[in-house]
Design brief:
The chain is mainly α and 310 residues long. Helices cover 73% and strands 0% of the residues.
Length: 310
């Protein structure tokens, strides 16, 4: 028996311990790899194109040529942007709104999601239904504007922070995370040790939820950073406008000046207007691209762990 066991590894099993793949599996792996590379190129090239177009001569960009490397470097778009003084005010405002709005959103979303995940909460199903109902039916822009104006927060930072404090989609993701990863048995054990609800939430639930909190910070910060409709509706002072509105106004003013120009100025201004679009995309997205790698490792894990179970 010992000899059979000793020699058994040589009967039908490779010495390396790895199972050899069939030709069909190898062909599938090659086709799958080629397909994945193609999809990555399709997704990545537009981003690469925008980056190249932001500092390439607009004449080359407007010709429709496929850009693979920088040609005739032209930095007029970036010069126009950074010479525009409201840009720096817009950056500061957006940073304030993003930090304040994200903090308010986390403070509102995480406790609410944790409470809705507890089966002992009275009226849990009704509250979940009411939150979900707002995803499909809402009062609209005009009632929201009237409320913002009535409570006296129009043209203040609160008009940018409070309306975005809770996203129902993010709330459902967080609730599902707590449902799956904070079991009732853990809560019962903490109660036996004399832990009340607040202690359980702050000392046990929150430390165990760093993954989903990081994902929520990314979701809310990205949404607030890219938002400009709320600023157009709820902010009346130009000095309080966020970066996205400032950049939008810059593009519109440059296009308007191009249409009202005459002679050779029209072509020059139109070229500048086209390159401004690409430069503005880079300038507005750069902070998020810098911050994303620091939370990327939590992203997939947090979304999967907080996915709705069905």
């Amino acid at each position: 028996m010992k000899k059979e066991r000793a020699s058994g590894r040589n009967i039908g099993f490779p010495k390396s311990g790895k199972i050899k793949k069939m030709w069909g599996d190898r062909i599938f792996d090659v086709i799958n790899a080629v397909l994945m590379i193609f999809i990555c190129l399709v997704i990545a090239y537009p981003l690469y194109y925008v980056l190249l177009a932001s500092f390439t001569d607009p004449t080359i960009v407007n010709s429709g040529k496929i850009l693979l490397y920088p040609e005739n470097i032209f930095l007029g778009g970036y010069k126009k942007i950074f010479q525009y003084r409201p840009i720096w005010t817009g950056y500061a405002n957006t940073l304030i709104y993003t930090l304040g709005g994200t903090a308010a959103a986390i403070v509102a979303t995480i406790p609410c999601a944790f409470a809705l995940s507890r089966k002992a909460l009275w009226g849990r199903r009704v509250l979940n239904f009411l939150f979900t109902f707002t995803m499909f039916f809402s009062g609209g822009i005009i009632p929201l504007y009237l409320i913002i104006n009535a409570v006296g927060i129009y043209d203040t930072i609160w008009a940018m922070v409070l309306p975005t404090a809770v996203s129902v989609y993010n709330l459902i993701v967080c609730r599902s995370f707590f449902d799956s990863n904070i079991p009732d048995e853990l809560y019962d054990a903490s109660k036996i040790d004399g832990c009340n609800d607040f202690d359980f939430f702050f000392r046990i639930a929150v430390p165990l939820s760093s993954t989903i909190i990081a994902v929520m910070i990314l979701f809310y910060a990205t949404s607030i950073w890219n938002s400009f409709m709320n600023a157009l509706m709820f902010m009346g002072t130009q000095d309080k406008m966020p970066l996205q509105v400032i950049l939008r106004n810059l593009v519109l003013s440059n296009q308007t000046s191009a249409l009202t120009s005459s002679g050779t100025e029209v072509a020059q201004r139109m070229k500048m207007a086209e390159q401004l679009k690409y430069s503005i995309i880079v300038v507005s997205a750069l902070p998020l691209l810098i911050a994303y790698p620091f939370v990327q490792k939590y992203f997939a894990k947090g979304v999967l762990m907080g996915a709705v179970k069905g």
